Every structure is written in structure tokens, then in C-alpha cells.
Amino acid sequence: MYKVRKESFAMQMKIVLSKCDGHANIIEELGHNIQLLLFSKKQTQDFVNKVGDSLIWEIQMKVSALLMRIEAESDMKSKRMQDGLEVLNEPKMLYEEMVQHVEQTKTPLEFLKKEASLRARAEKLVMLDELGPEYKDYVSHGKYLEELLTGFDVKKMGKVKRKGLVRKISQVLKVWKSDRKHFDLTAYRSLDLMLTKIASLEQEQNNDSDNSLSWELESSSEEDDEDPSDAKDATTSKHKVLQRLKCNV
Fold this sequence. Notes:
Structural class: mainly alpha
Helix content: over 70%
Region (Disordered): 204-239
Number of strands: 0
Strand content: under 5%
Number of helices: 8
Radius of gyration: 37 Å
Largest sheet: none
């Protein structure tokens, strides 16, 4: 009995040894694959960091360019308004100069010497009944925010907090664009009013977390926190959102 069991055990040992020999190459290959996995992890992290840094840099450059354009637009419109202010103040300044001329001249010769030029200036004065549109202009934050977010799909970049400011602005822009064929000054004024209302509500809530992005792993569903009923009737939802924003303005 012992001899039979020992011979069987020896045979089993040979089988195990053959499996060890057979696994040698596979073990070597698997060890190599583990090293490749670790290398690919490091390589992927490096790529994500580099591309992420480049993306952040591109966004910062875009923001900087927009800020410079805002400054330039503001300077141009401010100069135009300052010029208009000088035109509007011209009658008052001329009148004061004419009064001074009348009070300070002592002889007819002195009076007539400057009277002609003052009269000529008076005849050239422009009378404005009301301010023109160029003197009512301002910098549209909606226009620049639209340009800033152009090319960015907030839902695909990451999951932004449902109550976050960026998410709200993104939704307003989407609704605003879908209902508009012409993007003129009047259109941007309506967008500005909507965005101003959102910013006002954010300030009233006094919730700092709502003013920053909250990134989470992207859900397999493109919009898993959306109301299913809204998804069934996107058109109705769109008009409801737009109407609600307009009513709040």
C-alpha cells in the first residue's frame, strides 16, 4: 500500500514539475506584462498631465485674450462717450465764455474783435434732444461668456454640479441660442439680463461651493441627473426654462 502510494505521489510530483516548467515562459511573459502595465500607467498619467496643463494654458490664454478685448472695447466706447460729453458741454462752456467776453470788454473795438468768432462757434453748436445708441452702449458679458464657453461641452468635460454657476450659465446659453436666429445687440441684452439674474441669485444663496466646478468621474449616462420627463419632451422643457428665466428678470 505504501509503495503504491509513494509511486503515485512521485508521479504526481513529475506532473507538477512539468507544469512548473510549462509555466516558466508564461510567468516571464506575465511579469513583463506587469511591467508594461506599470509603465503604461505612468505614461498615461504623464500624457494626461501634459495635455491637461496645455489645455489649462489654452483656456488661460483665451481668458487673457478676452480680458484684453474687453478692456479695448471699454476704452473705445468710453472715449466715444467722453467725446460726446464734450460736445454736450460745449454750449455751457461757450455761454460762459460769451458772458465773460461781455463783462470784460470795455470798448466797442474790443467787443467786436472776438464777437465774430464766438458767434461762429455758436452757430455750429449741435443740439441733441436725446442720447443716441452709441452713448447708451456697454460691454456685454453675455457675448464674452458665450465666446469663452464656445467649444466646451460641460457635460463631456466632466460632471459639473447641477446647481453650479457654470452649469447654469451653460444651460441658459443653450436655451438662448436655440430660440434665436439673429444675434444682434438686443439679443445680447436679453442674455445679459438672464445672466445677471443668475449671478444675483447665486449671491443671495451665499454658497461658495456653487461658485466653483466640482469634477467627478463621468457617468456612463450623458445626463443621468436630468429629469426623465424633460428628456421625453425637450422642446417643452426648453421653453419652460426660458420662460422661467425671463419671468425672473
